[in-house]
Amino acid sequence: MRKNIVAGNWKLNTSYQEGIDLAIEISKLVAESGDKNVEVIVSPPFTHIAEINKVVDNDRISIAGQNCATETSGAFTGEISAEILWSAGADYVILGHSERREYYGETNKLLNIKVKKALEFNLTPIYCVGEVLEEREAGKHFDVIKEQLETVLFDLDADDFSKIVIAYEPVWAIGTGKVASPAQAQEVHKFIRDLLADKFGGAAQNTSILYGGSCKPGNAKEIFANTDVDGGLIGGAALKAEDFLAIINAF
Ligand code: PGA
Description:
The chain is of the alpha/beta class. It has a single domain, classed as TIM Barrel. It contains eleven helices and eight strands.
């Protein structure tokens, strides 16, 4: 179901107590700001999920894991499964973030397995795609994104596809302060939606496609105003409750 979403990706930040306090503050600010046509997601470190699930208003704040295993359970030291995340209170899981692709060698093939595993255990994947700077400069960004979508999502059935959320994150904009222009974001988001429509038909109109990469209170409104941009995946600015709220209020 297509909806506006603002998701905070906390990455490897916040001690346990800092994370709980941040979640409580976000929950309070979201409650005070009244009903908005936007779903709010926080994605803390795994250890914080169960407690955050208890302390926030669950009707207003959803929780995402930042990764999940390809396996269901067993002898996989250091991994976290979709089922464990779900049992701790997560509703979503971020998959295919460029930092996972770059630093941990996650491939499209592996991500295809993770997406299916997440769906099997009731987690909604927030599947990230996006090109690095050299690919954009070489004019290859559409090819890269096409491959990231086709290899990971195109063997899903219609029911599973209807649950997917996409995040377009140009890697050159992540944490760099260089944001894609609203026109650049819209161009790629439309490309993604058209590609999904070719494969899955009208269902692609119901897919939420988020923008990520240096999204801040000062630029969120003009990015979110685009027809095919349904919200944001927010890194740095999600770690300050007021900034995160200002981005939510950009809708
Ligand atoms: P940023 O990160 O907002 O700090 O650029 C976005 C992301 O990596 O999801």
